[in-house]
Structures are given as structure tokens and as C-alpha cells.
Design goal:
Blueprint lengths: L3 E6 L7 H14 L3 E5 L2 H7 L2 E3 L27 H13 L4 E6 L1 H12 L4 E5 L15 H22 L1 E7 L6 H10 L3 E3 L7 H13 L5 E6 L6 H10 L1 H4 L2 E6 L11 H19 L5 E6 L2 E6 H4 L8 H10 L2
Parallel strand pairs: 1-2, 1-4, 4-5, 5-10, 6-8, 6-9, 7-8
Antiparallel strand pairs: 2-3, 10-11
Helix pairs in contact: 1-10, 2-3, 5-6, 6-12, 7-8
The protein binds adenosine-5'-diphosphate (ADP) and 6-O-phosphono-beta-D-fructofuranose.
């Protein structure tokens, strides 16, 4: 059984990361283990920005978005020298294992450290929901709800002016957030990296929905889509006369990442954070902890690293069918 562990958050922050940190710290202390927090992801590991955490320090953070430990993208950690420095800083503190809360890149970092012989375990957390090893990753539910609130508001103003909005959502190279926003927000079409469609197709969807009597139109564009929002806007504007709708574009961007975590994300993060800490302390390592088919799961790094989760063709078909 390990006696000292550390926890960090890395990559894009995701709502619920605080609940996961709290769960790691409190579970560790409950098991009689000393828990250290690393500031700003792998940068803090390299710079030695590491300190012990107590149960009270993680009080009052459950409801806050972002991450109390800070996060970072740290190119230096991709080098062996960087990781050796991190190992030597952890050894100095007597740290025997590390919980990595983050997405694909962050789990790749955890894997790299693990391959060097250091015990690491991952907690699936990214608003993109592209990580293999969890049906839902921590943060995606909140990000989706924020996107929906924006779409609902855009529909109100769109209806007043007979306009259609192109709404760009985040997700890196994954269309999950865009597809779910399209279904739950009642969009005319969704542009996803996984399913390329032409600008002509999108414009025709708008034209037909105007002809069916719709007073507003929503096209959700995934940021990683093959056609950029600007390209699509330019094309639709060139056909504005015949489409019926006036066209506007809104990019939601980082707004989606900054919200207070939903109940779902708080519960998921508490569950995964606590399980990951317990597993690591009991000697489990080299896996990403997530939730698959309503059960806490552990997926070996080999199945996670270098791959991404696809989107469901059934859900895409549903979005298309209901856009009438
Ligand atoms: P996310 O975890 O949200 O996908 P990034 O892709 O930006 O975020 O990755 C976060 C960090 O993980 C990187 O800045 C880097 O420090 C670390 N990382 C990513 N890929 C590797 C790698 N191949 N080897 C070691 N560390 C990595
Ligand atoms: O991975 C989360 C995410 O928000 C992606 O959706 C997006 O592509 C990226 O991070 C943005 O990165 P940054 O915060 O560095 O601009």
C-alpha cells in the first residue's frame, strides 16, 4: 500500500476537476495516506511546485469551475529530461504514485511517466469527451449545458429577425459536443469532423427549413470541422437572397469551459477521483479510471493512448431525422 501520493490537473480545464481533486485528497487522507497537490499540471511537477494538502483545503471547491491546482500545457514534459526532473522532484517529497486528472494529452503524459517505472493512474476529464475509457468524461455535461443555454438564447433573437445562426462549439477534433448540442438544441444540421458535409448541403437545409415555415435556424459547427465557420458563413451569405434567413455566426469558445459543474459532473468527478485514489494506493497503476455502462471502469493505457472515441452514427441519424 502506498503512503504518499500526488494529484495534478493537466491540459484544458474542465468543470468538475475540483470535485475530483477533493475526492482524491479526502479519500487518500481517509485511507491514512499523505496527499500532495501539484500546481499547474506537469509544469509544477518539473518546477517542484508541490505541497501537501489537507481536508479543509479542498472545502468549498465542489461547486467551482476551473481547477484550484491550476492547469497547463507543458511541452517540456514530452522530453525525457523533463520527466526525469519531475521524477526527481517527486522522489524528494517521497511521493510514490500520481493521479493525473485530464484528457488525451494528459493521459499520454501519465503513460510516459508510467513507462519509466513510476506508478500513475488517470482520471478521465475533458469537455471534448474524446477519451477512450469513459462513456462520459468529467466536464462534458457542463460544457454541453452551457452550449445549450446559448443556443436557446440565440433561437430567441433569431426568431425575432428570421435569422439563422452558425454556432461554433469546442471539441478539438471530436464532434461529440457539436452532435449533442444539435440534438438537444434542435439544430437544422451539425458539421462534425467525423462526418463531412458540403456548404451547399447546409445552405439547402436552411432553405428547406425556411420554406417549411421555420422562423429561426441553428447550424452547429464543431471547431474541428473540415469547413470552418468563416467559410460556411461566406458561402451562406453568398446565397442569402435565396435562403430566406439572414445569417449570423457566433463562436462559443472558452465560455463552454468556464461554468460551475452540473450535478452530473460533480458526482462523476467525486466517484472517479475517489476510486482512482483508492486503486492507486492499493497498488493499481497504468490505467485510466472512468465510467462505462454505469460502472466504474479501468482501461489500460495501451487502449487509451493515441486513440480517440468516435461518435455514434445512430445519434447523427437521430439529429438528421428530427431536423424537420
Ligand atoms: P488534454 O489533456 O486536455 O488533451 P493536451 O493535449 O494539451 O491536453 O496535453 C496536456 C499535456 O500533457 C501537454 O502539455 C504535455 O505536458 C502532456 N503530454 C501530452 N502529450 C505527451 C507526450 N506524448 N508525452 C509526454 N507528455 C505529454
Ligand atoms: O481540450 C479542451 C479544449 O477546450 C478543446 O475543446 C479546444 O480545442 C482546446 O481545449 C482549446 O485549447 P486552449 O484552451 O489552449 O485554447
Amino acid at each position: 500500500m502506498l503512503k504518499r501520493i500526488a494529484v495534478l490537473t493537466s491540459g484544458g480545464d474542465a468543470p468538475g476537476m475540483n470535485a475530483a481533486i477533493r475526492a482524491v485528497v479526502r479519500t487518500g487522507i481517509d485511507m491514512g495516506v499523505e496527499v500532495f497537490g501539484v500546481r499547474h499540471g506537469y509544469s509544477g511537477l518539473i518546477n517542484g511546485d508541490i505541497r501537501q494538502m489537507g481536508v479543509r483545503e479542498v472545502g468549498g471547491v465542489l461547486q467551482a469551475g476551473g481547477t484550484m491546482l491550476g492547469s497547463a500545457r507543458c511541452p517540456e514534459f514530452k522530453t525525457v529530461e523533463g520527466r526525469n526532473q519531475a521524477l526527481s522532484n517527486m522522489a524528494e517529497h517521497g511521493i510514490e504514485g500520481l493521479v493525473v486528472i485530464g484528457g488525451n494529452g494528459s493521459q499520454t503524459g501519465g503513460h510516459a511517466l508510467w513507462k519509466m517505472g513510476f506508478p500513475t493512474i488517470g482520471v478521465a476529464s475533458t469537455i471534448d469527451n474524446d477519451l477512450i475509457g469513459s462513456d462520459m468524461t468529467i466536464g462534458v455535461d457542463t460544457a454541453l449545458n452551457i452550449a445549450l443555454e446559448s443556443i436557446d438564447r440565440l433561437k430567441v433573437t433569431a426568431s425575432s429577425h428570421k435569422r439563422a445562426f452558425l454556432v461554433e462549439v469546442m471539441g478539438r477534433d471530436c464532434g461529440y459536443l457539436a452532435l449533442m448540442s444539435a440534438i438537444a438544441g434542435g439544430a437544422e444540421a451539425a458539421l462534425l469532423p467525423e462526418i463531412p458535409v458540403t456548404a451547399e448541403f447546409v445552405a439547402n437545409q436552411l432553405k428547406e427549413s425556411y420554406a417549411r415555415g421555420k422562423t429561426n435556424g441553428i447550424i452547429v459547427v464543431a471547431e474541428g470541422s473540415h469547413l470552418s465557420t468563416e467559410e460556411l458563413l461566406a458561402y451562406c451569405n453568398s446565397r442569402e437572397e435565396s435562403l430566406g434567413f439572414e445569417i449570423r455566426a457566433t463562436t462559443l469558445g472558452h465560455v463552454q469551459r468556464g461554468g460551475a459543474p452540473t450535478a452530473y459532473d460533480r458526482i462523476l468527478a467525486s466517484l472517479l477521483g475517489s476510486n482512482a485514489a483508492e486503486k492507486l494506493i492499493n497498488g493499481r497503476q497504468g490505467v485510466v479510471v472512468g465510467r462505462i455502462a454505469n460502472k466504474v471502469s479501468e482501461t489500460p493505457y495501451e487502449e487509451v493512448i493515441g486513440r480517440t472515441k468516435g461518435i455514434s452514427p445512430d445519434l447523427y441519424a437521430l439529429a438528421e431525422r428530427l431536423a424537420r
